[in-house]
Amino acid sequence: MNQFFTQRRDRLLTYQAMREGRITSTRRKACPGCGAESSALDWSRNKQVCPRCGYHSPIGAYYRLSMILDPGSFQELEEKLEPADPLDFPGYADKLQGLERDTGLKDAAVAALGQVQRHKAVFVVLDGRFLMGSMGTAVGEKVTRAAEYAQRHKLPLIIFAASGGARMQEGIFSLMQMAKTAAAITRFQEKGGLYISCLTHPTTGGVTASFASLGDIMLSEPGALIGFAGPRVIEQTIGEKLPEGFQRAEYLLDHGFLDQIVPRDQWRHVLSQLLALHEKGGRA
Amino acid sequence: MSRYTPEEKVKIARNPGRPGTADFIQALFTDFFEQRGDRQCREDGSILGGIARFHGRPVTVLGHRKGKSLEENLHCNFGMPGPEGYRKAQRLMKQAEKFGRPIITFVDTPGAYPGKEAEERGQGEAIAQCLALMSTLTVPVIAIVTGEGGSGGALALAVGNRVLMLEHAVYSVLSPEGFASILWKDSSRSGEACGVMKLTAQDLRRGGIVQGVLKEPEGGAHTDWEATFRTVDAALKKELAALDKLSGPALARQRYQMFRAMGQGLSQAGKEES
Prior knowledge:
The structure holds two protein chains of two kinds.
Chain A: H1 2-27, H2 40-45, H3 61-68, E1 75-77, H4 92-103, E2 109-116, E3 119-126, H5 137-152, E4 157-163, H6 171-190, E5 195-203, H7 205-208, E6 217-220, H8 231-238, H9 249-254, E7 260-261, H10 267-277
Parallel strand pairs in A: 3-4, 4-5, 5-6, 6-7
Antiparallel strand pairs in A: 1-2, 2-3
Helix pairs in contact in A: 1-3, 5-6
Chain B: H1 6-13, H2 21-28, E1 30-34, E2 47-54, E3 57-64, H3 70-75, H4 83-98, E4 103-109, H5 116-120, H6 123-136, E5 141-150, H7 151-155, E6 162-166, E7 170-172, H8 176-184, H9 190-197, H10 201-206, E8 212-214, H11 225-243, H12 248-260, H13 264-273
Parallel strand pairs in B: 3-4, 4-5, 5-6, 5-7, 6-8
Antiparallel strand pairs in B: 1-2, 2-3
Helix pairs in contact in B: 4-6, 8-9
């Protein structure tokens, strides 16, 4: 019986991941990084990283989980959590419905229990296809519940961020998710929990200024744009062009805000190493 | 119901004649000793803070400072802090906790500064650390939004056991201009944005985001500073007395639970509607 569910869950993950892989790959034949044309098959074989220049194309949440987790270990958490429309914002409810239809996601975050090389952890992955991965009440609540779940079960927490920041359509309620998630993560960490924050392209605004910057370990994919203010806003404010590479992962590494940059095909290796290093001690 | 539209309130909230953090400190506190610098690289004038006495009792007081003259405005970067400002705030708040002093913050900023150096030195990280620190403090924290509470730059000083707002102050996820620019690619529609954002003190009180709205004199706080000071003083005294009854851990717990609950029930509500 148990096995039956495991297989079923795995098939669902594979189905979602394939669907995401197809969506991403049909859209991107020419690389936004170098402009070189590659076949959809090459993109997909290369995990949506440009085979020529190494540009890391954004990917969906299930697809990412499927490439990181051990087969059969995926177990989605809080999948029933629905988004809310606290401001009754014009057109927002329809937009949410349309996005759910197009992406199969209820909101911009997927939470799951899973294993990497047999090391158990709680995962949250933000999905940029859903309103740029912005954080409204559903994303804030999911991150918070994931931290609480990890604390209850004494498991490490791994979050892959990809976000334009706070969700405008939920107004001040979105802003409050910054305080809520930061507080929940801090509580989890103070109890000895390990939190690995993985930043992917792009991570900006209220997500950078809350849970995404609080990792015990801070990692990023190559070339990811990471910042508080977006480059356009900064250029408008200071009235000059920003230099090449500004706010990119490599720049943040140079300025001391990241531990390491991890290429997409290395995540499994790096995460399993870190989980193994924290297995004994460190936690009560 | 208020006689002002949300758009009018935004104008009142930004009125340069309103009392600012420096004015509140001078009027409501004695023995103010300013503390400067983040101990890493810089002093950020856009956050003013230090130790003072509130009705004889030592407290840590801090807030955004916009400045009154052009020269002051420039020194304070029009109330838009960089990471150094938020790191100074953290330093002051940690000290307050160490010495058992309550913390009172005055919130009035268009937002954290979106500049090149600010990014280089970790604006996002500095704000995140403020949120993390404030969520754990074991001393009473009272935040008062006195003018414009703009975005994460405001929230970074507003994770209080009580968050109060002056009657015509506003508090929002982003400035109405930024909001219109992001959602409709047109910052000139900011007036329309004010209408849908629910950013007035009254809206936020209803939404459970703030716990109290402090009455302003006829026309707004800029028309009668003394009356405004009396109201804020009375509110601070009352809230502080209430929080004094809680132990350190209970204060941290109450604050955590208050923010934990924000937006929590909404997801379920959304489900029932569909």
